[in-house]
Amino acid sequence: MQVLNFININCAKNNNLDHWKIFGRGDLQIINEGADGTNFAFLSTTRTSFSEGVKQELVVGCLVEGARMELKASMKLMANDESFVCDKTHKYGEARVCPLMSIKFVVPTAENGYRWLHIRNQNPIAWRADTFNHFTGQFVITSEMTASTEAYLYMYGPSPGVDIIFDEVTLREYSPPVTDCAQLIRSGDARVSITFIS
Q1: Which of 46, 57, 107, 113 would you call most buried, defined as having the most Cβ atoms within 10 angstroms of its Cβ?
Q2: CA distances from 82 to 77, 105, 137, 155 (A)
Q3: Domain that holds residue 49
Q4: Using one digit for the tens of pLDDT, what is the confidence trace for 70-115?
C-alpha cells in the first residue's frame, strides 16, 4: 500500500515553526510540554475570535482519488492559565466548543475557487482537562480534491481567549486495525487473566 503523508508534523521536536502559520490574530510558540511523553508541543495563544488559530500548507502532489485519509492530533486547552474543558456536543460559535479542524482545497474549477472540508472529531471519549485529548477524523479523497493546486489544514474553534496546545498532528492514508486470525480467543490463559482471591 502506498503511504500518503501530507503534513510536516515534527517541527516542534526541532524547535521549528517553519510550517505552521497563524491565521487571523494571535501568537504561536513552542512550549516544553509534549503529548505522550514527548518534550515539546505547539501553543496557539491570544486568539480573539472563534475563527482564529493556525494553519499549515499540505502536500497535494500525491493526492489519490478514493484513498481514505485519517487526520489525528493531540490537544489540550487552557484559559487564564488553567485547564479548560470543552464539550464535543457544542457547535462552532458556542461557548464550550472544542477545537475544530478543516481543510481548504484551492480548486480552480470551483465556483468561488476553493472548497472547504470540515472534519468531525470521531473520538467518542469526553474531553478531559488533565491530559492531551485525541482528535481523530477520516475522509475520502474525491476527484475534485485531486484537482486542487493548494490545500491548507486549519485548526481553530475554541472561544476567544482559550489557548490550544497541540502536538502529534498527522494526515495519512488510513490503515484499518489488523485482526489476528490465528488466535480468535482473546483471553484463554488463566495465569494471565485471573487474579485469585483467598
Answers
A1: 107
A2: 8, 35, 27, 21
A3: 10-193
A4: 999 999 999 999 999 999 999 999 999 999 999 999 998 888 899 9
